[in-house]
Amino acid sequence: MTDSAAVVRPMGSDDLAAADRVYRLAFGTQFGLPDPSRFRGDAQVLRGRWTTDPRPCFVAERDRRIVGSIVGMDWGSVFVLGPLTVDPAYADRGIGRLLMRPAMDFIAARGFALAGLFTFPASPKHVHLYESYGFVPQHLTPVLSSVALDSRLRGNDGIGEHANLLSDLPPAARAAARAACRAVSDAVFPGLDLTHEIEAIATQGLGDTVLLRDGGGISGFALCHGGAGSEAGSGVLFVKFACVRPGDAAGFMRLVEACERLAAVRGASRLVAGVNRARDGAYRAMRERGFRADLIGVAMHRPDGAGYNRPEIYAIDDWR
Ligand SMILES: CC(C)(COP(=O)(O)OP(=O)(O)OC[C@H]1O[C@@H](n2cnc3c(N)ncnc32)[C@H](O)[C@@H]1OP(=O)(O)O)[C@@H](O)C(=O)NCCC(=O)NCCS
User: Fold this and answer.
1) Which of 4, 107, 166, 255 is the most exposed place for a label (fewest CB within 10 A)?
2) Is the distance from the beta carbon of residue 137 to the nearest atom of ligand 1 less than 6 Å?
3) Residue 127 to residue 307: CA distance in whole angstroms
């Protein structure tokens, strides 16, 4: 059934507050929170994604009310779709499908090598909806967190001898650092490019980018959101994306440690870092370091295939 009174149009700045309200209500209801509107606390997802790139962001409007939205992230050759949310009062009327339409048009027009999303593997509704657009369930993506930040790290200034922060570099050196990050992510998946996300962290004040140093060069990086208004929320350091070159298990552990140190330096009590289960070495290493799953989703890919969810890939991201 399609709600013929609903229309979909590009998201504008005036829509952000209403779209955010629906986003929290939809997920808060899905998770059965006592007050659904408090879902994700003071973290912000839609505002940052729209500010970073409004092109794949759309709202559904009915009776001059925002009743749903969809956003996405352009990571070069990879598109991450979501979140898609519909006001629970308007669920199952085809509004989710109305919102998928322009998002799928955007994917087709840009010709991404891989489009992916994170959804709930135990929900027949979610899997059915996305399968009908050609997304295929892959491995699980546990969203991991660590509460017990190593006490040795507390009170220790800085993020360790193996890493530094993009914000500490002189402005003239930052473009070269971003290019070096691009070379590392390109080794993970051809064309994977987090440049917009790195810039968004800097320009929107969402956190910082950790640069892993190896000799003179950059051998890995981690995009870290922290605090209210970012995708982390207060008291949390959220690793939105991180990687080293394929097979660099030792470098990955140094990068995770630098993120732990950054969390300690910033006074965060929790470090959140999701890893797809197919990245076997990375996942096991995180478990051994004490990370545990808070939430388990599934990665869905279009077209079907592993993408960069492969055993030798040492990368962190959860696509929520
Ligand atoms: C997921 C969500 C966006 C879907 O929006 P919606 O407007 O209700 O979806 P639509 O009505 O367009 O489509 C739902 C589809 O699921 C089907 N469906 C509904 N319940 C189902 C069930 N229990 N089992 C299987 N399919 C089901 C519907 O029949 C429809 O498919 P059809 O068009 O082939 O008949 C909405 O439920 C939501 O906001 N949920 C909370 C937030 C969330 O989980 N977002 C997605 C995160 S990945």
Assistant:
1) 4
2) no
3) 19
- Domain harbouring 152, CATH code: 3.40.630.30
**C-alpha 125 – ligand 1 centre gap (Å):** 5
Q: Residue 152: which pLDDT band, with cuts at 50, 70 and 90?
A: low
- Tell me how crowded residue 166 is: count the other CB atoms within 10 A of its CB: 21
Q: Are strands 270-274 and 292-302 parallel, antiparallel or unpaired?
A: unpaired
pLDDT at 157: 62
- Mean pLDDT for the stretch of residues 222-240: 98
CA–centroid distance, 212 to ligand 1, in Å, is 41
Q: Is 86 in the pocket of ligand 1 (CB under 6 A)?
A: yes
Q: Based on the fold, state whether residues 105 and 150 are members of the same structural domain.
A: no
The DSSP secondary structure of 96-163, one letter per residue, reads HHHHHHHHHHHHHHHT-SEEEEEE-TT-HHHHHHHHTTT-EEEEEEEEEEE----GGGTT--SS-TTE
Query: Can you tell me the mean pLDDT for 218-226?
Result: 98
45 φ/ψ angles, rounded to the nearest 5 degrees: -110, -50
Residues in contact with 284: Cβ distance below 8 Å, sequence separation at least 6, in sequence order: none
Residue 76 sits in the same domain as residue 163: no
What mean pLDDT do residues 195-204 have?
A: 98
**Tens-place pLDDT, residues 97-133:** 999 999 999 999 999 999 999 999 999 999 999 999 9
Locate 89 and state its tokens.
Answer: 């009062």
Q: Which atom of ligand 1 is nearest to 126's Cα?
A: 1
The verdict on residue 227 lying in a domain is yes
CA distances for 128 relative to 72, 93, 123, 320, angstroms: 20, 15, 8, 18
Cβ–ligand 1 distance for 94 under 6 Å, the answer yes
pLDDT bin (cut points 50, 70, 90) of residue 149 is low
Q: Please tell me the total count of domains within the chain.
A: 2
Instruction: Please state, in angstroms and rounded to a whole number, the distance separating the CA atoms of residues 296 and 320.
Output: 11
Six-digit token pair at 192?
A: 């994977």
- The residues, ordered by sequence, that sit 6+ positions from 187 with a Cβ below 8 Å of its Cβ are 245, 246
The pLDDT-based confidence of 215 (bands split at 50, 70, 90) is: confident
Per-residue pLDDT, 153 = 57
